[in-house]
Amino acid sequence: MQKILIIFALVFVFITFPNQSFAQSDDKLVVLETNSGKLVIEFFPEDAPNHVKNFMNLTEIGFYDGVLFHRIIPGFMIQGGDPNTKNLDNSDWGTGGPSTSVDAEFNSIKHNRGIVSMARAQNPDSGGSQFFIIHQNSNFLDQQYTVFGRIVTDESFETLDKIASLETGERDIPINTEEAKITKAIIVNRSEITDLLDLGEPERVTETMEILEQPTEGTGNQMFENEQLNVAFSVPEGWSLQQPPKTDETIPDVVAVGPITGQINPVISLRVIEKNGTSFDDFIQEKNDLLSEVVATGSLEIISQEKTSINSKEAYVTDASGIFETGEQTFNVKFKEITISGTDNFYTFAYSNGADDFDNQLPRFDDSIDSFKELSEVTGEELSEATTSDEEGGGCLIATATFGSELAPQVQQLRELRDNSILSTKSGAAFMSGFNQIYYTFSPTIADFERKNPVFKETVKLAITPLLTSLSILNYATIDSEQEMLGYGIGIIMMNVGMYFVAPAILIHRIKKY
């Protein structure tokens, strides 16, 4: 079984998010002092007693002093608590923690803005020191990660917004790390904090609430580029993208973990292997010999294998199914692995998911494969176009117009909102499906004009700024039902009709009359 997990990259990955406030304990709070302000955290010991105890113990021994919020995704969450971030070399940021872990204590508290939850690997019982604070409601995480606290002062929410707005680079790491540093973490008595907010009982998931399905199509992609690995390819937007420590040659170099839609999380991984004179046929034979050993145990079944070509490169595709065991649970899992022969490396992509949900996310894996490029063969112009292009292959005029500008983070937030909220309702998914059919009849053409004409690009960016601003209202809206989605959606549409059509018409009419 372990070999199956190694071969197909089912590896541990970090989600790689004087008033009296409600509390289950009236005693102790933790204050995280950062260079961007203070974060005051109260806890839920009745829901997650072991996580609260673990966090308190780590705070007491100074474990969090000097660590960073190393992963920042505005509109989603900020993640910190990795002791590796005290080192200048960021290659292993996101992989560190204490020597012990905490078993999962999944509970019914919803992942709303300000909630503090424990980061973990794919194994539910792998929580350590890393935690995340939700920036905007992210309810697709509910009951998949252990909520153990929340921030409880106005300054805390202001600090959260400041950190979430920091400019980030590769792997969502902040450019200015000092602004994301926890300088000191201390335990204080509740009576010492005089400006606590009256937040009341945290919102909870109930059995009567509709479980929102995660989007399976119509969503965008994010580009991963790494010069050392000589690779660029897209992964589904909103998935947790990580680079695990390379402690073994079988460990993937890149892993993207998606939100759970069935029994397990979908996973896309990439392993890069230097050729060192090995022919493609010999490399595939070595892999198949290893697979044969696993098949002989009865744990894995090969569905199909074929040699093909992808982007004019030799490739080998394997489809398989097997058994994935964790604790006392057993899952039927399907796999697809594609090995591509590059100039100096072999690139092995793998996709795994529960058998019942495998086909739902398969098109997104296909998008990743179609977008694969070796950076040594990509020109600057091609890379820019690849970065700004959307999943339809032609290009998104909004992404192209805002690429590299101050509006880019805003567009990223709106895409995450679309994926995590709008597409989770039937009316939202139906609207986006119809919208995309119309939008992509003209979007690629306009995107091409934008790339060729900087003045035209700036004109388009100026024209769509009011639209993006109005859509940003949805970042602060709570959408938990079809009715709320329809209400907000119709309101936003009418607002834009007024801005782009009614107001200009009135202005023109008055000018003519004058």
What order do the helices and strands come in, and which of them pair?
Elements: H1 2-7, E1 28-34, E2 37-43, H2 49-60, E3 69-73, E4 77-80, E5 115-118, E6 131-134, E7 147-151, H3 154-164, E8 182-189, E9 221-226, E10 231-236, E11 240-242, E12 254-257, E13 267-274, H4 280-296, E14 300-310, E15 313-326, E16 329-341, E17 345-354, H5 358-370, H6 380-388, H7 397-402, H8 408-420, H9 426-439, H10 443-452, H11 454-471, H12 482-513
Helix pairs in contact: 10-11, 11-12
Structural write-up:
With 514 residues, this protein is α+β, with helices and mostly antiparallel strands. The chain folds into 3 domains: 165 residues, Cyclophilin (Beta Barrel), CATH 2.40.100.10; 166 residues, Protein Transport Mog1p, Chain A, CATH 3.40.1000; 122 residues, no CATH class. The chain is 31% helix and 23% strand. The chain has 12 helices and 17 strands. The strands form 3 sheets. It has an 8-stranded antiparallel β-sheet with strand order 3-4-6-5-7-2-1-8. A hairpin with a 2-residue loop joins β14 and β15. α10 packs across α11 and α11 crosses α12. The N terminus is likely disordered.
Q: What is the CA-based Rg, rounded? A: 24 Å
Distance between the termini: 80 Å
User: Strand pairing plus helix content: what structural class?
Assistant: alpha+beta
* Spans of at least 5 consecutive residues with low confidence: 1-23, 207-219, 379-394
